[in-house]
Structures are given as structure tokens and as C-alpha cells.
Amino acid sequence: MIPNYGSKIAFTLFSLVLIGLSVAAVILKSSSITFIEEQSGTSFSFENVTAASAHQIWVLPENLYHTPAKFVVGTAITSIIISGLTLLYMATNISDATTSLRPSTTLLVFITLLLNAILTLSAMIVLQTTHDFSSQLNTAYSSDLAARVYDSGTFDLEAWACEVKDVPGVPGIMADELAGQCRLERAGRMVVIFWMLTAVMVAGMAGWTLRGVKKGIDGDNGGRGKKMWWREWIPLGWWTSGNVKSMPAPVPLERRPYSSQYSAAYRSDA
After folding, report:
1. Measured between alpha carbons, how far is 160 from 35 in angstroms, rounded to an integer?
2. Could you read off the pLDDT of 101-133 as tens digits, one per residue?
3. pLDDT value at position 1?
4. Which has the minimum average pLDDT: 119-128, 162-171, 245-254?
5. For residue 11, what pLDDT band results from cuts at 50, 70 and 90?
6. Mind telling me which residue stretches traverse the membrane in this protein (predicted)?
7. Is 261 left (phi over 0), alpha (psi -120 to 50) or beta?
8. Alpha-carbon torsion angle 14, 16, 22, 23, nearest 10
9. Considering only CA atoms, which of 223, 238, 178, 203 is closest in space to residue 36?
10. What does the alpha-carbon distance between residue 148 and residue 60 come to, in Å, rounded to a whole number?
């Protein structure tokens, strides 16, 4: 797929970085899912309050975004599989660095990496959108639900943890746990951004190579053939149908060296 060793090494390194970021995204967002499951039924009491006014507060609000973390985990696992298969393909074809690989396979790899980049971009957009549109904590709000479950608005886990940890009266152990989860959520969001950028870069490298890879199948004419544009690889007749300008001009009959008229004219002159 990559026509020289230098480009192959660069492509391999970026693919390894992509796998590493995908693994980090899986770990960080899996911790978010685990935290939500473990703390869904946990509550605490504020400190420094009288017994008459003491009441319990649930660790998590009534309305919390669950889908973004699961979507990121699923997309990251898909990215690991795609990047791993691509690296395996590169490793088995590393000896073809000076020749061309099969154009159909190259096109398939590019399309797969492009879909992977689209998935990572979608995951980043979903995660960032839910964070930007997350509700803000109102400490003066008093819920009418049992045990004072906070039911005003919908939160993402980062916004909730980072705000509740600083509320006066939150027990120290719970504040430390929420502070740790706040740091994990922020790190996860940053990792997802870099993960998306790396996936787009890897797909761009494959697309740039696809744009001008040398013509040839299984190394035929490798290093000697003309450049073949990706449009010429698509096995569909509709791409050039009706494009008369791309067709060669017909040769007049009398100028064809092996036509009957040419032979008759040659005999008459002789």
C-alpha cells in the first residue's frame, strides 16, 4: 500500500499510536461505565448539619447521559480491530516496499480506514456535545423525590462529578472519589480528541498514497508504470459513460496501414 519503506514506517508508527489511544479510550470510558453502575444506588449525608435538617443525597443525579461512554468504548474496540488488521497486512507485505500492491486491496484498506475515521469523529462529537449541553448544578434546588435525588436537568458524568466535589458539606471520602472521577473524565475527553485526530491522519496517509500509487497488479510494472488515479480503479462503467472527450479520436480509414484501401492505393502507385 505504501510505496517505500519510509512511508511504511511512518504509517506503522501512526497506526500504533492509534491503537494505543484506542486502548486508552476503552480503559477511561469503561471506568465511567463502571462508576455509574457502582454508584447508581449510593447516597451520602452532608456534613456539619443538624440532625433535624440532615438528609441524604444520591451520588449520581436522576438524569445522566449513559450512551456516549458506551458508544466511545464500542468505537474504540472497532478501531483497535481495524488498526490491528491493517498493521498485520502491512507486516505481511513489507517486502513489497519498492513495488505496487494490488489496487483493489489498497482501495479496500483506504475505505476501511476512512470509515474508522468517521466513527471516531462521530464518537468525539457525541461526547463533546453531551458535555457542552450538560446541565449546571444548582445547589439551592430542593428535589421533591425520595432521598433528595437531584432531578433537575440532564448531566454528563464529567460535569456532575467536577461540580459536586466542590459543594460544601460533601464528605471527604466522597469528595475525593468524585475528584478522581472528574480527572478521569477530563482525561478521557482529551484522549478521545487526540484519538480522533490520529484516526483522521492515518486515513489521510492511506488516501494520499491511494491518490498516486503506481499502476500494476502484484508488482507488475512496479516502479516503471504510470500513475493510476483512484477513479480508474473503480470497476464501474458509469464513471466514464458518456464522457466522449476521454475517448481516443478515430483514425481515418485511408490512413490505417493495414486497411484494404491503403493496400489498393499502394499497389496502384507501384
Report:
1. 13
2. 566 677 788 889 999 999 999 999 999 999 998
3. 46
4. 245-254
5. confident
6. 71-92, 104-127, 192-210
7. alpha
8. -160
9. 178
10. 11
Please report where in the chains the cell 480503479 appears, as a residue: 233
C-alpha cell, 88 = 498485520
What is the number of other CB atoms lying within 10 angstroms of the CB of residue 215? 17
Amino acid at the residue 197: L
pLDDT at 30 over 80: yes
Domain map (residue ranges) of the chain: 5-212
For residue 214, the SS3 value is strand
Exposed/middle/buried for residue 110 (C-beta within 10 Å: 0-12, 13-18, 19+): buried
Question: Partners of 44 in the beta sheet?
Answer: 57
Q: What mean pLDDT value characterizes the chain?
A: 74
